[in-house]
Amino acid sequence: MKRLRSAVLLCGVAVSALASTQGSAQQMRDAAVPGAQPPSGDAGTQAGSNVAVPPNEAADEIIVTAQRRAQALQDVPMSINVATGQQLQRLKLFDAKDVQNLVPGLQLSNTDGRSNTATLRGVGFNPDQGTSPAVDLYLNDVPIDAQTAFTGLYDIDQVEVLRGPQGALRGRTAPAGAITIRTRRASVDDVSGYLQLTGTEDHAFNAQGGVSLPLVPGTLGLRVAGLADGNRLNQVYNVNRDEYSRSRTLSGRISLTWKPSDTLNVFLTYQYLYADNRQFQQVAGPGNAPSGLFGDPRRSGPAATPSDYIAVSEGPYRFENETHFVNLAFDWDLNFATLSGNAAYQKSKLRQFRDGDAANALIGLTQQQLVVSPYPVKTGELRLDSNNNDFWNWSISGFYSRQTGNVRSIQPADVFFSPASNALSLPISADVMVPVRTRSYSIAASSSFQFTDKLRLEVAARYTDSKSRQAAFVTISSPGFPGVPPFIPAIPPIPANTSAVVPPELALTHVHPLTGGATLTYEFSPDVTAYFAYGRSYRGPTAGVSVPQNITGDLVKSRKETSNSFELGLKTSLLDRRLSVNVAAFYQTFNGFITRIPGVSYDFGARNAFGVPAGPPDGIIDGAFDFNYNGDAKVKGVEATITGRPTDNWDFAVNAAYSHARFSNAPFPCNDYNGDGQPDANGTPRITGSGNVSYCLRNDRLADVPDFSLTANSELRFNWGDMQPFISGLFTYRPSFYSNTADFRYRSREQLNLFVGLRGPNARWEITAFAKNVLNQKRVTNIGLGNAIIATSAGIPFDSGYRLINTTNPREFGGTLSFNF
Q: Whole-angstrom distance between the N-terminal and C-terminal Cα of the chain?
């Protein structure tokens, strides 16, 4: 089977390479124009969009570029969710993470203020694990990191969520899907634009707009867009610092469109982003006096429930992102084929400043961590696509990506001798330097064979040469400890001593994966299409660059991950395209799925005279860390979308997804304090067995998300002369489920957003009042396993009395005024 899969993928490369030397320019149903973009604006539910929109702005078809050519959504053999920029504005989805409210099975989150993550089809990802993401992100078809992509949305043309393994047609491979974000381009013909102003009673504001100016009509156009956004993020109030979480985002974008001839289009975009997020970590629990047993009555904070929205950390939390993004793209019609290119340069600087003692287990002492991540990323792609041959269409492309930079983390690694007092500790400073060096080359090819008017076969493959060096160097120093005779001996100062965290033999990774897929499509009629698809993905081994020293290699570096996916789908348009029903079923197997297990207690053995761990495990918990590890897994499920327009004044869309994603008897590092082989944090921290960590067999979820989820939205309009009153709603549902990793049952969530407003003639202006989370549900969305603690060498920890949590934001009222021209 392995040889057969490889043969199928290699066939696609060989056939497409041969095809690049020949071909004719005849017409075919699909326009194979890699740089093609659907017109800015809305598209209607008749074509299968998962968002309801007004008919006066609806086109006959939703046009997508999921397969790197402009196609009608209903013709693409893939499970896709689409939302245009107008739809995002109408539903007041101002943050990229809000897209999850439209897409069932998609979770976009940021639990700690710095780690943006995407989960799809039950397959999760942690950005700290060092691999490419499970769900890849693209801005104008350029791979981009989640820390930059998951910020304010403005002047967006379209967002497409592609489900299932991706990478054959785009630069990187991803096992669960991809999200493509496309900004609006400058028009060379008309002056057009918009302005939108929003405010809420929860101290949030959003001002955004954009305008296109044809500098040389028909040839050169300029578009300028900008965003200013502010809010209180998770609405958490820090009782020990007397301040709320808050966010400020400023961004601007300038783009040029140049059309020197009918066959050449050139697009240049520059975007600047500055985001300043001060998001405190929410806690829940009775609180505690961690040293109260020894006479210190001070508490970590007051008793708190999830609906209290409080934090207790004594140190600040601040996450800054300053990014410059330049993108140059072109497409050139050569008659027999179209040559397109896309190059980008991203220069980002992330600065993270946070208190590592989020639950205030150490009263009066902060564990302040500073992480500075400056890195430039260069990407480039060159593609050649055949132009609409009757029988055989092909593409061939090359891709390049390189990232460099030195990440620096400065944090305390203090050793606490007893919970009697914070002062009974050896202060240790850990200065970690992580040189980032990754580069990737790949070649890809695809072939599409139109055997009959109804039957089409598509084969695509990508061969990648990827090299990365995941090294880390830690410098340890300490002023020493005077001792407490006769209980604790004096410890002399530790001079600065630098050592490599990742062994040299594990630091370098050089892999050559072959990925891709094949799709067979049969069109029963112009309104009914069925398809069967196979996809293969790959993610390389990854080393934990700041792992504890003196631990076994399996905890330092993971193995590679591969997956094979099969999908069967049906797309239909009924009742003269007033109703569409799309259904897809899928099955995916993972060999060595890479995941990150947070907060695992470890024992790295005794330290030597320089404060560096050097001996075998000594039975003492030395701390907790988030380890990368592999485990086999299986994912299966069904997705469905129903959209319709029963009347010209009523639209609706219902989207549902079921995904059963589970590990298959996979051994993983865990906290197993009671020694029963199951994850728990009950009792005194200890290691089960004689290794650096405990291990548990897992058959639970790949991510803390429910198997089923549903989204629905609808709009009802009324006739009132030239103006149009309307009422609309957006509803999301996630059932209750139990998490083994958190030992917690999450309650069901039913979130309802309502909108009522008035549109002017031809939708030139609109005024809207809205309420988000109308039911005012305050549900826990993420929770840590057990109370947050700080370990001590005596085996008894500082116990904060709190669990770290995240909760849905409370009900919020607001209003929006917008103008279109």
A: 57
